[in-house]
Amino acid sequence: MATYLYRLGRLCFRRRRTVLAVWLAVLIAIGGGAAAFGGKTTEEFKVPGTEAQATLDRIKDTFPAQGHGSAQVVFRSDAAGGIAAPENARAVGEAVARIAAVPGVADIPDPYATGALSPDGTVALGLVSFDSKLGDITDQQRDAVKAAADPARAAGVTVAFGGDAYNKMAQVDGGEVIGLIVAGLVLVVTLGSLVAAGLPLVTALVGVGIAMAGVFTVAGSFEVISTAPVLALMVGLAVGIDYALFIVSRHRRHLAEGLEPEEAAARANATAGSAVVFAGLTVVAALAGLAVAGVPFLTVMGLAASAAVVVAVLVAITLLPAVLGFAGRGIDRLPVWRRALRTTGRTTLGERWAGFVVRRPLAVLLAGLTALVALAVPAASLTLGLPGGGSQAKGTDARTAYDLVDHSFGPGFNAPLVVVVDAAGAAQPEQAVQGVAERLGALPGVQTLLPPQLDGPSRTALVPVIPKTGPDHADTRQLVTDIRDQRDALRAETGARIDVTGTTAANIDVSAKLSDALPPFVAVIVGIALVLLALAFRSILVPLKAVAGFLLSITASLGAVVAVYQWGWLDGLIDVPKVGPVVSFVPILLIGVLFGLAMDYELFLVSGMKEHHVHGMEPREAVVAGVKNGARVVTAAALIMVAVFGSFVFGHDPIVQPIGFALAVGVLVDAFVVRMALVPAAMALFGRAAWWFPKSLDKVVPRVDMEGEQLMARLEPAAGAAAADPGAKLPERV
């Protein structure tokens, strides 16, 4: 691999104008495609095969409104007479009539006629039904519905809109700009000049631009969940900057050793570029592996992020060498920290740290393990759920509506369940539906039942069930289970079959399916890691150690997520909209993304150790040398990722925020505790055994030459001849 990347780097360096023109053309073409054919994303977390979704699909022709978008409109007045005062009733009635006339609105019953008034008489609740799916409701329709309530506002009535149609998720708040600024500062400190620091930022932005445009272009033809482009942005920025940083750092080291810019770029592409390709493959494999869960929206998220990583790798090994060609020896122009330009002749902090670790490996190993286990303890209490109106930021319209309903009617009105009664096998359908309703009403978790809706021709009825608890409460999940447990008894008594659906039940089913998917997904990830790392390092212990470290990072990160988002720790520092269950796909997404990033650091650090060991160093000396050469860059890369991921934590999106937090903590723990402490300690304890590989496998496993050993064997004789004869040139092909 190193040889091919060496040739590619040299070619791109020489043909830099052509390479730059091609990438700019790709960016313009895909960007134009997104503008012309791109579609909008969806907020629906649908999972085919779950009971709630299968039931919804089955009744969509009989009860089409169940498959359409809906919203709550909450009217409140604390004035004398409350919401039932004549002037308020007139204003609310006019607002309801105007909402019903908005194009796209199918129905909104008069809350006074249906009795949807709070017991204290201050709040009226209207339920807006649209005539299209949630994903097809436009922002213009939402705005028109809001504007239609102006008569009520003019009368002094508080109006708030919530429900599925107004629970906007996965919104980018602009915090990523702060992440980019911090990343730029880290690059300046690490590389020492504005020119060198600017190259990774520029190439990463080109890659992210292409990836994001591609995702929105695909959204024009396929259903893309709104979280997918945000995840692609998050991961694409982080890996794009990091991959470029590794190659630029190696390039500058070769320049300091006296190589010409072209040769330095080619060798950096061969060695650091090989690690980039392998690291990218692990990230892509992990993210594509999200398909194992069998959840379509999660598969889309994984594929979108995978595409961003693929583009980042291609940009790093083609566009970056071309840009290095434009920079030439001027890569260190505009220096801001001259110490960073000296690459040899001094003992670095990384070298001193590595020396300490190899002298006391067992103590470092035990201390690191103790810290990680302590951080992981809260993970045992992990509870999963999906965000709703209660997860929105305080002060937003959706959160206001949610809180008003919760306070005035009870939390269960924000978590309605729909029990579908198929009475086709019952002798008397109406009596069967009534019998089902009586049995359901007697369950301990039910607050009330709304009037059943019976469709005569199909002999199918909908029984709305209002729980006593909210959508993310454990008792609500238990109620869904209790209702389903009544299925056999009700069929025996009434001849009718029941199923549970609705948004709350669907979210519960999604969370359960994602929880069940975790073990097989982890098994797939571990298998991928073992194969790729065995292929890269030709070792047994190194892959096993890497997987163990990865699992420690995951559990520690999940522990931190539970402590903050489920227990409410750091509430004064991080503005968590609502403490409660962790977003159900955060753990599996964290595993997929962090696996690839953790393998990045493993590859960059351990490949340096192996490179020195291959060239004759003793194992412990090789560990110190590998950390010395890689610590500065790995530290910078980790800080950049933490900055990029962490910048999403200070937004208010209930999905993006915990994802950013989990990834930021995961990278921080994995880079600084696992890879910079536990890995050197374990490698020092392993000694030569770290590089043992069975002869039977050695014969069949292909050699990828990630450290460039075979390449250097070909280049060094030519370099020696060039030193003896200054007129000689390095070979055009190797």
UniProtKB/TrEMBL annotation:
<feature type="transmembrane region" description="Helical">
    <location>
        <begin position="544"/>
        <end position="565"/>
    </location>
</feature>
<feature type="domain" description="SSD">
    <location>
        <begin position="194"/>
        <end position="326"/>
    </location>
</feature>
<feature type="transmembrane region" description="Helical">
    <location>
        <begin position="303"/>
        <end position="328"/>
    </location>
</feature>
<keyword id="KW-1003">Cell membrane</keyword>
<dbReference type="InterPro" id="IPR050545">
    <property type="entry name" value="Mycobact_MmpL"/>
</dbReference>
<feature type="transmembrane region" description="Helical">
    <location>
        <begin position="177"/>
        <end position="197"/>
    </location>
</feature>
<feature type="transmembrane region" description="Helical">
    <location>
        <begin position="204"/>
        <end position="222"/>
    </location>
</feature>
<keyword id="KW-0812">Transmembrane</keyword>
<feature type="transmembrane region" description="Helical">
    <location>
        <begin position="517"/>
        <end position="537"/>
    </location>
</feature>
<keyword id="KW-0472">Membrane</keyword>
<dbReference type="InterPro" id="IPR004869">
    <property type="entry name" value="MMPL_dom"/>
</dbReference>
<feature type="transmembrane region" description="Helical">
    <location>
        <begin position="585"/>
        <end position="609"/>
    </location>
</feature>
<feature type="transmembrane region" description="Helical">
    <location>
        <begin position="228"/>
        <end position="249"/>
    </location>
</feature>
<keyword id="KW-1133">Transmembrane helix</keyword>
<protein>
    <submittedName>
        <fullName>MMPL family transporter</fullName>
    </submittedName>
</protein>
<comment type="similarity">
    <text>Belongs to the resistance-nodulation-cell division (RND) (TC 2.A.6) family. MmpL subfamily.</text>
</comment>
<dbReference type="InterPro" id="IPR000731">
    <property type="entry name" value="SSD"/>
</dbReference>
<feature type="transmembrane region" description="Helical">
    <location>
        <begin position="662"/>
        <end position="686"/>
    </location>
</feature>
<feature type="transmembrane region" description="Helical">
    <location>
        <begin position="362"/>
        <end position="384"/>
    </location>
</feature>
<dbReference type="Pfam" id="PF03176">
    <property type="entry name" value="MMPL"/>
</dbReference>
<feature type="transmembrane region" description="Helical">
    <location>
        <begin position="630"/>
        <end position="650"/>
    </location>
</feature>
<feature type="transmembrane region" description="Helical">
    <location>
        <begin position="270"/>
        <end position="297"/>
    </location>
</feature>
